[in-house]
Write a structure and sequence with these properties.
Blueprint (H helix, E strand, L loop, with lengths): L1 E8 L5 E9 L2 E10 L2 H19 L15
């Protein structure tokens, strides 16, 4: 199963992020995230990503790769 997303981002910092599963050309929404503090959400998720990398480590989904850089 592949995961895809689309985003609705506004000038005032509000955002709606739709996360989909892709199955044989059909798109099913799995989750929708809405925030009016996108920078704050990113600031919270980046440390969580690092904690997961440290905890689960090599061989896991969270294995440290260069795909996500902390800002």
């Amino acid at each position: 199963m592949n995961v895809n997303k689309d985003d609705d981002i506004r000038w005032d910092g509000c955002a709606e992020i739709h996360v989909y599963s892709i199955k044989d050309e059909n798109r099913d929404i799995n989750n929708t995230f809405h925030t009016c503090d996108l920078k704050g959400m990113i600031d919270v998720l980046q440390p969580l990503n690092n904690v997961c990398k440290d905890y689960f480590g090599k061989g896991s989904y969270w294995e440290d790769t260069d795909d996500v850089k902390s800002v």
